[in-house]
Fold:
Amino acid sequence: MKTQVLIIGAGATGAGIIRDLALRGLQCILVDKKDINAGASGGNHGLLHSGSRYVATDAEAAKECADEGRIIKKIAPQCVEAANGFFIAVEGDDDNYIADFSDRCKKCGITATAIDVKDAKEMEPNISPRTIAVYEVPDASVDPFMLSLDNVAHARQLGSSYLRFSEVVGFDIRNKKIESVHIKNTQTNETFDIQPEWVINASGAWAGNISKMADIPLEVLFSKGTLLVTQKRLSKRIINRLRQAADADILVPGGSVSIIGTTSVRISDPDDIWPTVQEVDAIVKEGAIMVPALETTRYIRAYCGVRPLISQPGTSDDRNVSRGFALIDHAEHGVENMTTITGGKLTTYRLMAEKTSNMVCERLGISMPCKTHTTPMPSTTDGRWTEPGLSPMEWMQHNRSQDIMLCECEMIPKTAIDHIISNMQSKHGNADLTGIGIRSRVGKGPCQGTYCSARIASHMVDRGDISGSDAIVLLKRFLQERWRGQRPLLWDNPMIQSELQEAIHCGFLNLDGYQNVEEVQS
Amino acid sequence: MSALTDHCDVLVIGSGLAGMAATFFSLDRGLKTIQMGSGCPLQFYSGFFDIMGTYPIKDNKTWDNPWDAIEMLCQEKNNHPYAFLTRDQLLQATGSWLDFLKDLGIHYHYIPNKNIYAITPIGTQKLTHAVPKSIWIGIDAMMNHQEALLVDIDGLKGFSAKQIKESLQSIWPEMETTRITFPGTSGEVFTNHMANALEAKAMQEQMADLLLPRAQRVKCVGFPAMLGSFYHNDVCSNLEKLLGKPVFEIPTLPQSMQGQRIRNALTHGLIQKKGKLFQKTVTQIEPDGKYGFIAHADDQTVFAKNIVLASGRFMGKGLIAKRTSISEPLLNLPVHQPESRRDWHHKNFFNSEGHGIHLAGVEVDQSFRPVDQNNKIVYEHLYAVGSILAHNDWMRYKCGSGVAVGSAFGAVSHIVT
Structure:
């Protein structure tokens, strides 16, 4: 298989790059060892920063965010909910930080409007009664899954390809050039080769693993951030704590839920990440200072992402070094047709894609300019089922009485699942339950997949997508993956729910007796 | 509001399997018995009567003979509820319970001293001891390699005959499948609606007409659990006559018809035995020197000489999990539990040793009376039975029904009048 550019990693950056290059007329292949947004791009707040968070520590990053936020809102409005944001300070927060905030925003080109505290409490009843200062800024929330799915979908329309479950396992390098890339299909373990003119390593936290295969030294450190999803939406706007960036100080609404986070914990292996009970308790405690309802609300799920940090000696707080991105031309390391892009943040993914594509095009002698800041991103059907609360609305509007509701919590009918499955199958690899979870709200409602997982597995067997014994393996994998996010949040109603889940899947269906799925290493 | 008051020898709190069994054994002893329970926990019951299937769970060791498994368990775990019962008591408990159900029209089938593999709606096999007749016929056909036809219904979710066939291919290659539209339906269908519809003769005939041409070569015909509700036995025997061969059922994901039928039958049977059953939530219990206990539920007050607590675990709200600890809400009984929430659940959902939280619960003495940390009885006339008991991971051991019925029997037999 030949291609002009092979992009490794289907996160926001890789998805942004394939669209950028496709718009310049290049034919590219995007590969991922798992699927869309499997790393940090799927494990974040889904916040389109106005930049206000960085005004005190990194004015450059703040300006970038401000510019990029405006561009994303314009070119991909389907992925954005322009909810606006509050920055609120509570009693005891740093007075100087509060006093300097609005001027600092202004210097970065960000409008921060002071809001009377009493008015703010009417606009956002869930903020702390101990609130002492409030500013409104143009924050927005963005659906990172829809964003990446739409980027990839547009690139595919323009002739590029995306291969799921395709892991890079080695490079053939001759005369300082990568001639061939060895790829393993992680579902079937079959291998195949791709001969690219250029390789872009956009594998985020895994960038070091990839570059190592080409004998390129690149030390990546990992900072884990954990977030919690509430069952109900707690605010209209994004609520930020008005202070130096720290743990659990951003609450982002999206559709019918809210997300509170994050933490920052240095870890040694990006493939072994778990939200922990300690982190959950810390987030709830700290978040409740800003929004007291976080102490009593029902949580649906915890998840985490890994911020890749390119090693820089002497920095103490990962949060402060993690926001910039690293774009590295590997000619200096003896490989002339490979570039690594890593780090950065979701808000600036497009800019990162632009800079990377510029570098690659220049080296390939292609003079087409970037178009992603002006060309609207088509809203495709690939990402349409990812938004919380959208599916019930569609269902009510269309009232398809002949359809069958496979997921009752999030109201996802059979026709939607059928659509998602056929879309997945067009992108290499077999349809799987976890992939359906990425592309929809399946398993994300209060039942956490207890019922819908089994129903969808049965439906997939009926369709002939998988065999009866595959269904058992897929079901176990899916439940284990959801479990990762359920486990630290099991008290009150979620405890009842998880007991029902285990009663059905172990007590009744005896899946614990089927030991064909590998145990998790602890 | 005028207060309703009642007096009884035994107040059973809970209407799951353990609560029903405690009510039955108590009434059988001639004790004046009241049952209070909220919700319909038995609707979540699969109907599989597990006694003991897997031990030790970390080795996934399954047992052909449930009594041998219990013997091994009791040697190693002297705090499991089974350790407080003799084999004779357990045999008597399960025997009289299944006889009672038989009198109520629910015929359990089993092979003495044997476990069997039941078929689940996803085609896995689950070790159990006894099952209702309609389920038994399918298991028996599988064990005897009979040709069978499994019927799938358009619009029924969570059930795929094809999946069951494929999963059981190596064990039961003689099974075939067919798919029909349930007469008069389109779009999504539900087993309870179809079960009710099938109680009409005309519907049974339509069903038989649909299936006769497809079931020529097979010895029996299987369905998702939908063959009638109150008149399940009539529906089965009529269909068997019309088709000229036995019919069987495979239980569906809860809430299934199996659980509903058992609940209906038990409610009916216990009322016939002069039990007083209320769909009410007990909200408060006061110990009382004269009567034993005074229990409050909505507008009702019950003076009870004894209480059997069969309120279940988290689903039944017999136990409540808060962010920091687990408690028993009605009498604030001491709850045995892991030291911290960190130890409640393992990282792996299917962890071979199960989860710490499922061994949590109320600890009892040999007579099923809750005890505190010093092994001191908390109340002279309070008993705890069923899944609320500590050291009893029923989901993994596959021992839920046996523990429910056995502990209910044990507790009631200790009640002194």
About this structure: The two ends of chain A are 39 Å apart (CA to CA). Confidence is low (pLDDT under 50) at residues 312-317, 517-522 of chain A.
